Every structure is written in C-alpha cells, then in structure tokens.
Amino acid sequence: MSKKYAVIKGVQGALPDYVLTNKELETLVDTNDEWITTRTGIKERRILKDKDKAASDLAANAVEKLLEKTGTNKDDIELVIVATVTADMVFPDTANITCDKAGLNNAFGFDINAACSGFLFALTTGAQYIETGRLKKVIVVGVDVMSTIIDYTDRATCVIFGDGCGAVLLEASEDSGVIDSVFRGDGSGRHYLHMKAGGSLKPASKETVENREHYVYQEGRTVFKHAVKGMSTTVQEVMDRNNLTADDIDWVVPHQANMRIISSVADMLRFPMEKVMQNIAHYGNTTAGTLPLCLWDYESKLKKGDKIILTAFGGGFTWGATYLIWGYDG
Ligand code: UT7
User: Fold this and answer.
1) CATH topology of domain 179-325
2) Would 177 disulfide with which of 7, 37, 118, 119, CB 3.0-4.6 Å?
3) What residue owns the CA closest to ligand 1's atom 16?
4) Element holding 308 (H helix, E strand)
5) 223 CB near ligand 1 (under 6 Å)
6) Per-residue pLDDT reduced to its tens digit, 6-62
C-alpha cells in the first residue's frame, strides 16, 4: 500500500478590521515609527476591538470561509485543532467553541499551546490523523488575540504583537502534503518569554493585576538570538534529512516576529528574500497566526508541487521546521 500524506487543500485568514499604526503607538508609549520600522519591520497590526468577541470568533470566521471556498460540507469535518496562547477561556478549549460557532456538529476539537510554534506543531498533529487513515478531513487553525495580553504601556512588547487567524483544511493525498518535521523544545527558555500570572503557579489576584502580571513579559534580545539559531538549525536539519538544498526550495514560510530575524535566517541558509514569505509589515507578530496568514497572503502564487519549508520559534522555548509539498495551484 502506498504511503498516505496529509495535504493542505485550502487556506483562509481572518483579521479584525481595526488597524493600529506605528503613528498611533507613538501616542501611547515613548516610541516612533522610525525605530519600530528599522528594528522590527512592522508598520501596522490588526486589533480585535469588539469587547464581546474572542479567538473563537476569528477562528469560526476563518473556518466558515475555508469550507465555503473549498466546497466542503460542514458535517464532513471530523477534527479541529486550534493553536493559541489566547484561548477564549482557560477551559473549555477554543477548538470546541469554534466548532459550535461555525456549526461543525460532527467534529471534536482540542487546543495546542506552543506559543509561536503552535501552528507548526498542530499541523503535524493534524496530519498524523490523516496519514494513519484514522480521519479524512481535519482543520488546523492558528489564532491569537495578543492585544488581550499586551501591556500598552510597555514599549518593548506592545509595538510587536497583533491579532490574527489562519486556518487550513487537511485531506489525504498520494503524492503531496506534509513530508517531515523537526521539532524542539527547551523549557528553561520560559524565563525569557512568559505571562507571569493567571496560571496554577500564580492564580489571578488583586496583587497580580496591580503588578501588571497578566501581560506578556519578554527579554527581547535573548529571544532574538535563540530564534535565529533555533529556526536556522531546524530548517537545515529537515533539509538535510530530505536531501534538499536551498535551490530545491520554492518558498520559506518563517514565523513573523521581527524582520531582522527573518532576514538573518534567510541569510544563514542562503535563501534569496524573493522566496521568503513576509507580511510582518501589516500584521506584526500574531503568534500562532503568522504561518497560516502567510500561506493565505501568498496562496495565489503557490503551485502544485511547490516545495515549502515552514519554521517558527516561540515561548517555551519551542521551535522547529516542517517540509511540505503544496497540493494545488493557487
Ligand atoms: O514571537 C515570539 C518570539 N519573539 C521574538 O522572536 C522577538 C525577539 N526579539 C525582538 O524582536 C527584539 O529584541 C525587540 C524588537 C523586542 C527589541 O529590539 P532590540 O533591537 O533587541 O532592542 P533592545 O531591547 O536591545 O533595545 C535597544 C534600545 C534600548 O534603548 P537603550 O537602552 O539602548 O537606550 C531600548 O530601551 O531600544 C529601546 N527600545 C525602544 N525604543 C523605541 C526598546 N523598545 C523600543 C521602542 N521604541 N518600542
């Protein structure tokens, strides 16, 4: 029997309407457009302003449009995996809330929390259900509403992050799909990128709120160095394992955290920037949303058979690279 792969059959993004520009950030913290542009490559990011909306609303919107554009019946979806660090609630999981809001009555769901590597890890998890023949149609979502955990008085973090969502539909294929992944983790990295309170270590209290401990804490320079090293080494490893050189790769899809990280990784691996997907200028760092949002923005340029490497690095630390072969002409 020939090997079964899980191939991406469609991709869809969902973004909030509100655009937070560098100019507006200048009115909130001591920063300026020139610093943000040269140090990060970001010009604007999207922010979910509706107080009654959450990650599941962006996810359900992306899922419904994805099903429409791929002509897929809602009842045929068997599993939805949502990668996020900004779940609607601590529990239940956002995937099940998404299924409810999108009207997916035959699907079960669960969340994956691996910060900026969440979508990458979820993609391989979803793919494995299809490769084994256990399921036929799986949706993988990467979504984050970072504005809910960002301190808009902290210039070191508030200029980087944004809100956004992307979703892909996975189905079985004989000749293309997710081929291989190299994933890594190092829990000691938690000290450099985390949210201090709101978990079992430090439950929410008057004191944690007063100390502003329900926001992202990041030691940017340390994270930056680990990100460049982590992404470039795992990309090289997955290429070596599959006998690929930079020339063989049609597209690289890097996590969109900082334009300088993206170009350093591309330089180290000798990928020309024309092959490297970039949309950080418009969305900033949407954590689990960056990779599927890149695929969505570049969908019309993708061709069946394109060899693509996705790579991410994030809180945990978590990082890795996935090699896949694209399944349709965009
Ligand atoms: O996605 C998850 C993983 N996260 C990442 O990959 C993010 C990795 N880190 C980064 O992208 C960068 O480290 C940052 C964008 C967060 C910061 O850029 P940096 O070039 O590493 O800046 P820095 O922290 O080394 O700070 C340099 C200077 C400092 O001033 P002094 O001490 O040299 O006078 C900062 O206070 O820039 C200052 N600074 C700012 N100035 C204007 C820091 N943030 C700002 C700001 N506007 N927003």
Assistant:
1) Peroxisomal Thiolase; Chain A, domain 1 (3.40.47)
2) 7
3) 220
4) strand 307-314
5) yes
6) 999 999 999 999 999 999 999 999 999 999 999 999 999 999 999 999 999 999 999
